[in-house]
């Protein structure tokens, strides 16, 4: 470690038709490391290159090969990347169930070990993620509403799916979500309030959901349901109703990317926030520890309640009525900004 910034050009932006020459040129130009973005088309929606390409480049320079694996699972392929000439191998925390084991495996093949955290597209930082719930949008022009709220500053789009069985309301299913998918590239955060959820996971994944959250109360085999979500290529979340103790997720934490805590009873928008859940947020944050798991709050989120849950450890806020009130993009932007400012301020103060 020193005071000189290390510059690591990513060959992802190079001319692939003459990649060896590009690597040599950028090294002569002053590059310190060569950054290699490896994508598999599964963990991320792109496919780049693998060990054969890296091996072919290895004799073009003695610079550090900094290999960023955006693949799932990464561990079975570590030996191949080490043999290809990588010096540093970085894996995504979200792409491996046993992060500690993966990092040890990187060192076992003779490389330096790194870990990457995505932001939701998915990252953890001090900026609150605002996920407007389309449950409060105008359903007669839902595509336009999604586009408007995204331009207004939404980070994710929250999709409340209800079946009239687990909750006393019926909203929409995969066909509606699929029709919205081409309106934005924002994360589709799908909250399944359906029982049972597992048989329908594939349909929601195919419709374009990025995160699928199931209720602990709606599935007999929670661990199996969470694994099934990952099997269809989505991030896995679990939701707890206000009266459900957090202890039910203690043994599935390593299956999770997100914990959604209901601060109203599920089924309808516009309900009042339940303050008792704030203490649950703190307890869940303590349970999570250093794991890269989001805590999402759904129900009664306003500029007045957002600071309470943000200070307790929540980093994703679902807001329906509080975002869509006013009915115009200008109002949506003002509403999102107010919630974000209140939440981010509480996070900074708590830090």
Structure description:
This protein has helices spanning 19-28, 51-58, 78-84, 99-108, 119-122, 142-151, 174-181, 201-207, 222-231, 277-288, 306-312, 321-324, 329-350, and strands at 33-39, 64-70, 88-92, 112-116, 129-132, 156-162, 187-193, 211-215, 235-240, 258-262, 294-298, 316-319. It is an alpha/beta fold. The strands form 2 sheets. Strands 5-12-11-10-9-8-7-6 form an 8-stranded parallel β-sheet. α7 packs parallel to α8 and α11 (306-312) runs parallel beside α13 (329-350).
Describe the structure using short key phrases:
single chain, 351 residues, 8-stranded parallel sheet, 4-stranded parallel sheet, 19% strand
Produce the secondary structure layout:
Elements lengths: L18 H10 L4 E7 L11 H8 L5 E7 L7 H7 L3 E5 L6 H10 L3 E5 L2 H4 L6 E4 L9 H10 L4 E7 L11 H8 L5 E7 L7 H7 L3 E5 L6 H10 L3 E6 L17 E5 L14 H12 L5 E5 L7 H7 L3 E4 L1 H4 L4 H22 L1
Parallel strand pairs: 1-2, 2-3, 3-4, 5-12, 6-7, 7-8, 8-9, 9-10, 10-11, 11-12
Helix pairs in contact: 2-3, 7-8, 11-13
């Amino acid at each position: 470690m020193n005071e000189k910034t290390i510059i690591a050009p990513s060959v992802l932006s190079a001319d692939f038709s003459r990649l060896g020459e590009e690597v040599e040129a950028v090294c002569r130009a002053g590059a310190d490391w060569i950054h290699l973005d490896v994508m598999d088309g599964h963990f991320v929606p792109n496919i780049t290159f693998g060990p054969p390409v890296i091996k072919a480049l290895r004799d073009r320079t003695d610079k550090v090969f900094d290999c960023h694996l955006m693949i799932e699972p990464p561990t079975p392929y570590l030996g191949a990347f080490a043999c290809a000439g990588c010096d540093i191998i970085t894996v995504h925390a979200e792409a491996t169930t046993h992060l500690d084991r993966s990092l040890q495996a990187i060192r076992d093949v003779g490389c330096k070990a790194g870990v990457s955290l995505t932001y939701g597209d998915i990252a953890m930082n001090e900026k609150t993620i605002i996920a407007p719930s389309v449950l409060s949008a105008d359903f007669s022009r839902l595509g336009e509403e999604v586009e408007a709220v995204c331009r207004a500053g939404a980070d994710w789009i929250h999709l409340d799916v209800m079946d009239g069985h687990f909750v006393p309301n019926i909203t929409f299913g995969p066909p509606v979500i699929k029709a919205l998918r081409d309106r934005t590239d924002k994360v589709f955060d799908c909250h399944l309030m359906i029982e049972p959820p597992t048989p329908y996971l594939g349909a929601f994944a195919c419709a374009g959901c990025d995160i699928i959250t199931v209720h602990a109360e709606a599935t007999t085999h929670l661990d199996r349901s969470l694994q099934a979500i990952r099997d269809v290529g989505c991030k896995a979340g679990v939701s707890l109703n206000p009266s459900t103790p957090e202890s039910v997720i203690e043994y599935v934490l390593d299956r999770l990317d997100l914990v959604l805590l209901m601060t109203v009873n599920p089924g309808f928008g516009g309900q009042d926030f339940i303050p008792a859940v704030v203490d649950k947020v703190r307890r869940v944050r303590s349970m999570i520890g250093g794991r890269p798991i989001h805590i999402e709050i759904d129900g009664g989120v306003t500029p007045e309640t957002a600071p309470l849950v943000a200070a307790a450890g929540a980093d994703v806020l679902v807001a329906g009525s509080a975002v869509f009130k006013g009915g115009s993009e200008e109002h949506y932007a003002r509403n999102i900004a107010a919630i974000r400012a209140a939440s981010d301020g509480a996070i900074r103060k708590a830090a």
